[in-house]
Amino acid sequence: MSGAGVEHRFGPYGGQYVPETLMPALAELEAAWVSARADPQFQAQLGRLLRDYAGRPTPLYLAERLSAAAGRTTYLKREDLLHTGAHKINNALGQALLAVRMGKRRIIAETGAGQHGVASATACALLDLECVVYMGAEDIRRQAPNVQRMGLLGATVVPVEAGARTLKEAVSEAIRDWVTNVADSHYIIGSAVGPAPYPAIVRDLQRCIGDEARDQILACEGRLPQRVIACVGGGSNAIGLFTAFVDDEGVELIGVEAAGEGIESGRHGAPLTVAGRPGVLHGSFSALLQDDEGQIAEAHSVSAGLDYPGSGPEHAWLRDSGRASYVAVTDSEALAAFERTAELEGIIPALEPAHAIHFALNLPSESELDLICLSGRGDKDLAEVLKLLGRA
Amino acid sequence: MTGAERIAAAFLGCQRRAALMPYLMGGFPDQARSLAIANGYVDGGADLIELGVPFSDPLADGPVIQSAGTAALAAGATFDRVLATASAVAERVPVVLMCYSNAILARGTDRAIAGIAAAGVSGLIVPDLPLEEAPATALSCSAAGVAFVGLAAPTSTDERLAAIGAATQGFLYTVAVAGTTGERGDHSAYAEVVARVRAHTSVPVALGFGISTPQQARAAADAGADGVIVGSRLVREAAESDDPAASCKALVEQFAQALR
Ligand SMILES: Cc1ncc(COP(=O)(O)O)c(C=O)c1O
Q1: Please, what's the b/e burial string for A101-123 (b: 16 or more CB within 10 A of its CB; e: otherwise)?
Q2: How many CB atoms lie under 10 A from the CB of residue A48?
Q3: A234 near A192, Cβ under 8 Å?
Q4: Positive or negative torsion for Cα B213, B218, B224, B227
Q5: CATH number reported for the structural domain that contains residue B181 in this entry
Q6: Cis previous bond, B29, omega within 30
Q7: DSSP state of B18
Q8: Pairing of strands B95-98, B123-125
Q9: Interface residue A284 vs chain B (CB under 8 A)
């Protein structure tokens, strides 16, 4: 019944744990994606938008002062230079075009840091689609500039007051909207999570990050990096970077999660790192933070984009199969890397990739050549960071 | 008697009228009162009871059932305590447990279902476990003598309805509208939904989601439903009333009256 086409499972992970109401829509989406992916016209249209509108390819930048500080050659993949300021636009443009192709004129999105919400609102403005963005009330508070942006772009931002009022609750509410309005709406999920076919679609739309970066580093260095490093919330920038390197055996793949107040505090967002019992959240079976009863735990991170108790199913499988490893970096470490990157490189990173930068900069390694995904810029985080650093 | 047989007998026992299946949020407002409400349901004329296990992230539920679940968890509800309620009520009417996937996975499917069976529960509904993901759970239910109840939706294709209709046990839970649980005024689509689903199954068709007045319950029965499930309206009553058991009983009486 589910059309052949994209992966539903990555090892034991993934699947479609959703109400029956959505199953036909998931099948329709999968069929539409399989056909769009193979359609040169669709690819040309998307390619043009990514190039002329979003700003692809993004540079691969040799960060010399960071390299000196790290003691090894360090390249940054500059997704922060994209229109709207993060890699999220790659996925939002692709899925919005797909929605048009499916005849769906109403878009639902969730957002944590606001980057995916802004990217979706932007794609909808461009393609003349209605856009409703669910956002936790706590995230609305700490990512205020993005809320204003979405408003300006014509999107409706719906505050979600349930639970910890962050990304998990926003995803749940977006899915409930989709269950209710599935006939005329498409849900643009913002990360490589959710029921099949979403993790595969998001990966396909984000893999341009790694495809470009691999060519670029070969052109610059004449060899592949020893380590490829990305932050992991749901895992979309990381899977987008990793995919191109998965078959390159000598390349180490490292995902950096949020350790929040410290793994031992229990207040973190690092389900892949702690590797507890996997479970079902938001339609897929994957690594997850939960209690003994199977109730989903709240995640904690200074970075709204990493403040999520679940993770993409393909990452859980990359971990179990030993192909990738996952580590976690605390709030205060990420804040330090945020400042350091600004001082050393004149680049204000988003708090999310600041986690990846901290790891590359401060943990010992034999690596001589690192490639880090700078998934977004930090404008959205300024007010919150200055407050946390006691400067506001 | 297996769970499926007990459910079948309950539907048959209603003779020509539709069966009334009120939904109860386990452990809400607290453990003692949820049992009192369950007994109120039976006293008010419930033929079966659908008992929800509270879950932190219930994707199929609207605000009323969501917040009742959150409150139940805060009041200390656990899977085992909900089963204790089930076990007490199951002596009076068949109980169908509504439980999200992760709560079952967390204790291991076979162990969870053995516990469900031991509590005397007749059927299991897992709202986020569509047919494709259900085989292991269905197998485990079948080994334990618990009916694994499938869900059909207005969006289900004929091909899916045929497969769901063939696989379901006890009855077919038919979602009346595309959407989450929650009170809704409209009942114009009931007849079409019931007719479509009925063509694909031989077990009783129970309609739920949105049915919130006795008139709507009557309309569901008139539309051909063999069973009527009332959820959010009753959970809201439990949330708002000073004496939830009494007022839920009174409300169930009105629904039962409408189905006579
Ligand atoms: C800049 C940036 N990086 C990373 C993330 C985390 O998401 P993902 O793991 O899907 O890349 C976000 C999410 O909001 C983000 O805004």
Answers
A1: bbebebbbbbbbbbbbbbbbbbb
A2: 10
A3: yes
A4: positive
A5: 3.20.20.70
A6: yes
A7: P
A8: parallel
A9: no
Tokens 């009486």 map to which residue? B253
Shortest CA distance to B228 belongs to which of B247, B213, B249?
B213
DSSP labels, A313-346 = HHHHHHHHTTSEEEEEEEHHHHHHHHHHHHHHHS
Segment B169-178, tens digit of pLDDT: 999 999 999 9
Is A107 in contact with A120 (CB distance < 8 Å)? yes
The answer to whether A306 touches A335, Cβ cutoff 8 Å, is no
Euclidean distance between CA atoms B213 and A141, whole angstroms: 39
Contact B139, B172 (CB under 8 A): no
The amino acid that residue B164 corresponds to is I
Which conformational region is residue A63 in: left (phi greater than 0), alpha (psi within -120 to 50 degrees), or beta? beta
User: What is d(CA A326, CA A322) in angstroms, rounded to the nearest whole number?
Assistant: 10
B154 with A21: Cβ contact below 8 A = yes
| Rounded distance between C-alpha atoms, residue B55 and residue B73, angstroms | 8
Minimum CA–CA partner of B60 in chain A: A19
Q: What is the pTM of this model?
A: 0.97
What CA–CA distance (Å, rounded) separates B88 from B238?
A: 19
Ligand 1 atom showing the smallest separation from residue A353 Cα: 3
| Nearest CA owner, ligand 1 atom 14 | A305
Which residue has 């509208």 as its token pair? B177
d(CA B24, CA B88): 14
- Rounded to the nearest whole angstrom, what is the distance from the C-alpha of residue B41 to the centroid of ligand 1? 48
- Which amino acid is residue B195, in one-letter code? A
A199-220 b/e with 16+ CB inside 10 Å = b?
bbbbbbbbbbbbbbbbebbeee
The Cα of A272 is separated from the nearest Cα of chain B by a number of Å equal to 17
Domain count, chain B: 1
Ranges of beta strands (E only) in B90-230 are: 95-98, 123-125, 147-148, 151-152, 172-175, 205-208, 227-230
DSSP state of B128: T
Residues A388/A378, Cβ–Cβ less than 8 Å: no
Between A and B, how many CB-CB pairs are < 8 A?
A: 122
Q: How far is CA A259 from the centre of its chain?
A: 17
Q: Which of A20, A172, A279 sits opposite B102 (nearest CB)?
A: A279
The residue contributing the CA closest to ligand 1 atom 10 is A236
> Which residue type is seen at A113?
A
Helix, strand, coil percentages in chain B from 3-state DSSP, rounded to 5:
50, 15, 35
Residue type, B170: G
**Contact in structure between A133 and A117 (CB atoms under 8 Å):** yes
Query: Which domain range does residue B254 map to?
Result: 3-259
Give the length of chain A.
Answer: 392
Is A24 close to B157, i.e. CB distance below 8 A? Answer: yes
- pLDDT tens for each residue of chain A, 392 residues long: 344 689 999 999 999 999 999 999 999 999 999 999 999 999 999 999 999 999 999 999 999 999 999 999 999 999 999 999 999 999 999 999 999 999 999 999 999 989 999 999 999 999 999 999 999 999 999 888 999 999 999 999 999 998 889 999 999 999 999 999 999 999 999 999 999 999 999 999 999 999 999 999 999 999 999 999 999 999 999 999 999 999 999 999 999 999 999 999 999 999 999 999 999 999 999 999 999 999 999 999 999 999 999 999 999 999 999 999 999 999 999 999 999 999 999 999 999 999 999 999 999 999 999 999 999 999 999 999 999 988 87
DSSP-assigned beta bridge partners for residue A269: A258
- What SS3 state is found at A3? coil
Pairwise CB contact (< 8 Å): A18 & B156 = no
